[in-house]
Write a structure and sequence with these properties.
Layout: H1 5-13, E1 14-16, E2 24-27, E3 31-35, H2 36-49, E4 58-62, H3 73-88, E5 91-93, H4 100-107, E6 114-117, E7 131-134, H5 137-144, E8 149-152, E9 155-162, H6 171-182, E10 190-195, H7 204-212, E11 221-223, H8 228-236, E12 256-261, E13 268-270, E14 278-280, E15 291-295, H9 303-314, E16 322-326, H10 330-338, H11 341-347, E17 350-352, E18 372-375, E19 391-394, H12 397-406, E20 435-436, H13 441-444, E21 468-475, H14 482-485, H15 499-503, H16 514-524, E22 528-531, H17 544-551, E23 554-559, H18 564-572, E24 576-580, E25 592-595, H19 598-603, E26 608-613, E27 617-622, H20 627-635, H21 638-644
Parallel strand pairs: 3-4, 3-6, 4-5, 6-7, 9-10, 9-12, 10-11, 15-16, 15-18, 16-17, 18-19, 21-22, 22-23, 23-24
Antiparallel strand pairs: 1-2, 2-8, 5-20, 13-14, 21-25, 24-27, 25-26, 26-27
Helix pairs in contact: 2-3, 2-5, 6-7, 9-11, 9-12, 20-21
Length: 646
């Protein structure tokens, strides 16, 4: 039978389950990726699991998020992560070496392999013909320990690309067009697989841009074929031997179909405060501008900086605009220096920042209050920039730079500049100096974990009780993101290795009193519940958005629907995720939920659950829990379950 590429990759790594959409499957994982904002918990989880050594083909830990060293907490995390990598047999990429996704693509990505990462944008590696899936940290810890990754079999949406991108339109506009069509949940339960003659004009790094932001549609991952563009990229990185050709079979079909004529695209922009609010740039042209920001894992390639450099060489940026440049790797910095592009950027008015995620995750570079910021980052959820009421637009490097030059939001086609023609360096600088390989097993066993005062051992959680009596502490709207559940930013991220400390910030953008109210509910009863609308938990893979509320007594979330990774994270920490059976059903803050015979209800196998509200009415609920997930829940979470398995 003819197979598309996604099905080929899944078939090659299928450990358990059937390849039928919606069915639970388990996949063998070849590689893992962790970064410092989520990897601290992963390493603490490996400690809790009693792991001796990583059992994957390759695991890599990157320090790219928590780079601001305002006090001891972030640097202590860096030291802890370094010691954990030495202890568990994991590659270590230190602060300043670059953002995890492009560096992993350059040094370790390999067509045909699976990659699980504790960062939602792990899907960027699909640009190389990998099956790369972002997951919660505990799922990644289990993969490092040799267990398969458990997901639901996705549908595959085939997106046929034709034509060629016109001037002033680039890969960012392609994924913005996908988001314009699908919004932030239209890709849920799907893999986005790209194919067609339009691929011929897209480099491997162009594909990285598109694959990276596929996550913003809710997709499980994105997949590109491994072809001549992939081979050229790996050859330039000195790794041509890692290349293999991969593509869908000639007669392959897809569950869903879409087509994009690249030649018909125009510069696009996502308005505040959602990646799905996409319009043509011309519709918002003329609005004022405080900041233009280029860089991040969503636009990490050489051309994404070289094009702006050549633009500001023709005309410098407006003096009233903060033009922030965030190189994505040390290797890229060397290439920009060698080609004189860095000098052009600095001379043209750029503010140069260190190689890392920086303002993308709210670690510095916050915009002024009430002012517009144009960014090439993947997300613009409310408050993610570090300002509670921010106004962040998502756009291409061309649009961000044109707007910085003009001093207002500008369609780059209207600026009157010559469109830069960029040639990739024939021999890019390959810099492995800050990548540390795993120690030999006998040496690794001698290493002790180095824990500063802010690195706190994971809390222990009890099993799920037979009866729940819970107060609904929050009743929330649709599309609540993990940035709203557990904020990012320079004040919060330093507590990523300290669950009790970071729990104090839970839901702060929505309700500053949540942590205190949750602790009071925890003292007086069994804990509490949260009610929500559609797509609850969209965005980041950060499992802190599950473990921190669980630490405060959260036992159950009732929503209309869930984002995939957050749903998995809730289960992994023993929080029951259920959905309203009836579309019009609601819960309000202060309601009391009672669930009797919970274990029996979960085990009866019909996916249904019944609760009582305020002792007056029955609330019919449904769930999508496999037998494996139910066992994890009943144990009180994945670590407890794994310990029970021995």
């Amino acid at each position: 039978m003819a197979l598309n590429l996604s099905h080929k990759l899944i078939k090659d790594h299928l450990v358990d389950g059937e390849m039928k959409p919606g069915e639970p499957i388990a996949l063998k994982i070849d590689q893992t990726l962790t970064q410092d904002a989520t990897g601290t918990l992963v390493m603490l989880e490996l400690e809790a699991l009693g792991l001796d050594r990583a059992k994957t083909e390759l695991s890599a830990q990157y320090v790219d998020h928590n780079l601001i060293q305002a006090d001891y907490r972030n640097p202590d995390d860096h030291v802890f992560l370094h010691s954990a990598c030495r202890r568990f047999g994991i590659w270590f990429s230190g602060a300043g070496n670059g953002v995890s996704h492009p560096v992993h693509m350059q040094r370790f990505g390999k067509p045909g392999k699976t990659l699980a990462g504790s960062d939602s944008h792990t899907c960027a590696a699909g640009s190389l013909g990998m099956l790369a899936i972002g997951s919660g940290g505990l799922d990644v810890a289990m993969a490092i320990a040799g267990d398969p990754l458990h997901i639901r079999m996705p549908k595959v949406r085939g997106i046929r690309l034709t034509g060629e991108l016109p001037e002033w339109v680039s890969a960012k506009d392609v994924i913005l067009e996908v988001l314009r069509r699908l919004d932030v949940d239209g890709g849920s339960g799907c893999i986005l697989e790209y194919y067609g003659p339009g691929l011929d004009g897209l480099t491997a790094m162009d594909r990285h841009v598109i694959a990276n932001m596929g996550m913003e549609t809710g997709a499980t991952t994105s997949v590109f074929p491994s072809d001549d563009a992939t081979r050229a990229f790996l050859k330039a990185q000195g790794r041509e031997d890692d290349w293999s050709e991969l593509a869908a079979d000639e007669a392959a079909d897809y569950d869903l179909h879409d087509e994009i004529d690249l030649s018909r695209l125009e510069p696009l922009i996502a308005k505040p405060s959602s990646p799905g609010k996409v319009v043509p740039v011309r519709e918002v042209a003329g609005e004022d501008l405080y900041q233009a920001y280029i860089g991040s894992s969503a636009n990490p390639g050489f051309r994404d900086f070289a094009v702006p450099a050549m633009m500001v060489k023709q005309r410098p940026v407006d003096r009233d605009v903060s033009f922030d440049v965030n190189p994505t790797s040390r290797q890229l910095l060397e290439d920009l220096i060698a080609e004189s592009h860095l000098a052009s950027l600095v001379h043209g008015g750029a503010r140069l920042h260190q190689a890392g995620c920086n303002g993308c995750i709210g670690m510095g570079q916050a915009p002024a209050s009430g002012r517009n910021s144009l960014r090439t980052v993947p997300r613009n959820f409310p408050g993610r920039s570090g300002v509670s009421e921010d106004s962040v637009f998502l756009c291409s490097p061309e649009t961000a730079t044109a707007s910085a030059i003009a001093g207002e939001i500008t369609d780059p086609r209207d600026l009157g500049l010559d469109y830069p023609k960029v040639e990739e360096p024939e021999e890019p600088h390959v810099n492995d100096a800050m990548l540390e390989a795993p120690l030999a097993p006998e040496e690794a066993k001698k290493v002790e974990l180095v824990k500063g005062p802010n690195v706190v051992t994971l809390p222990e959680f009890e099993a799920l009780p037979e009866r729940l009596e819970l107060t609904v502490l929050l009743a929330l709207d649709d599309d609540i993101s993990t940035d709203e559940i557990m904020p990012a930013g320079a004040n919060v991220l330093p507590y990523r290795s300290n669950v009790p400390g970071i729990a104090e910030f839970c839901f702060r953008p929505i309700d500053e009193r949540y942590a205190d109210r949750a602790k009071r509910a925890q003292k007086s009863g069994d804990g509490h519940a949260i009610a929500a609308g559609e797509n609850y938990g969209q965005g980041s893979s950060r499992e802190h958005a599950a473990i921190a509320p669980r630490h405060l007594g959260l036992r159950m979330v009732v929503a209309k629907s869930f984002a995939r990774i957050h749903w998995q994270n809730l289960v992994n920490y023993g929080v029951l995720p259920v959905q309203f059976e009836e579309a019009e059903a609601k819960l309000k803050e202060g309601d009391t939920l009672v669930v009797e015979n919970l274990h029996q209800q979960l085990r009866q196998g019909d996916g249904k659950l019944s609760a009582e509200v305020d002792g007056k009415r029955e609330l019919k609920l449904v769930h999508d829990l496999s037998d494996y997930r139910i066992a994890v829940l009943l144990a009180g979470g994945l670590i407890n379950w794994k310990r029970e398995q021995g």
